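Contributing new records

If you add data, match the layout below exactly. Sequence lines come first and carry their own label; structure lines follow with theirs. Keep one chain per record. Anything else will be rejected by the validation script.
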Amino acid sequence: LSSKFWIQESKFDTLSSFAFGTLVKNRLQVYQYLKDNGIESRPLICGSMGLQPMWIKKYGKLNLANADVVHEYGIYLPNNASLNESDIKFICEKFNEIADPFFFNY
């Protein structure tokens, strides 16, 4: 992916993620476009607890700045041992065709 996208980072030399996280302004559009091209994706974790219906019903809406960003803009791209270089290029190509980057400093 180009440097215009926020990407997950780690202080560890070895990282084994089940997916690759990034942020986009048009998450639902990206999800559908990737799905139409045979690429699975999903929202980044479950989003902000302060925006979950059960939380809002019991306590009211709770603003959690960083978690709210993940809730609104976070998306996971596939990352697994069965992907080869060609697969990764295809995923990146399709993602770059549709994704509108959301970048923030936390």
